[in-house]
Write a structure and sequence with these properties.
This protein is mainly beta. It is built from one helix and twelve strands. It has a four-stranded antiparallel sheet with strand order 1-3-9-6, with no helix packed on it. The chain has a four-stranded mixed sheet with strand order 2-12-10-5, with no helix packed on it.
Length: 160
């Protein structure tokens, strides 16, 4: 039964995407929804009008993991950052860590645990620019997964 439950939780996001069901509704807007991941930084200083890089630092709740940006199975929801308000040149994700499932055949996943950092190369104008965006992910423990979440991201970039 645990194997079937895990399979349904892991496969549901892919099945929903295949049917055209959108994941764009921020889950943080729903009262009582726990995010399981938090953004640790709220401001950055970069060179104005030149490509520069910032690191978005995230922390995942203890005992949980999220799929990496490039999970080993195409049916798993990859972690993804999307930003607005600035010209984003590149988003670089860290390598995931191997994680062995405690159910089924003990498959190896590619995940993030604890803290992880996403590097964003961007161009910012002189002055302060409020930036908004989202982190899309799915948190899991050793035996099951929570529904996919969308964490709203809000921070300030100051070009000097």
């Amino acid at each position: 039964m645990k194997q079937l439950t895990l399979a349904l939780v892991l496969l549901a996001p892919a099945a929903m995407r295949a049917q055209g069901i959108s994941f764009d509704t921020p889950s943080a807007s729903k009262p009582g929804v726990r995010q399981h991941v938090e953004l640790l930084s709220d401001s950055y200083i970069v060179a104005a009008n030149k490509p520069d890089e910032i690191e978005l630092r995230f922390r995942i709740d203890s005992g949980l993991h999220i799929n990496s940006h490039a999970p080993k199975d195409e049916l798993l929801l990859p972690t993804a950052v999307k930003l607005e308000s600035l010209h984003v040149l590149n988003v670089a994700y860290p390598a995931g860590k191997p994680f062995k499932l405690n159910v089924g055949k003990g498959e190896l996943l590619d995940v993030y645990e604890g803290e992880f950092r996403v590097r964003v190369k961007l161009a910012a104008p002189k002055g302060t620019t409020p930036v908004s965006g989202v982190l899309r992910y799915q948190a899991c423990d050793t035996a099951s997964c929570f529904p996919p979440r969308t964490l709203p991201l809000r921070f300030v970039v100051t070009g000097q």
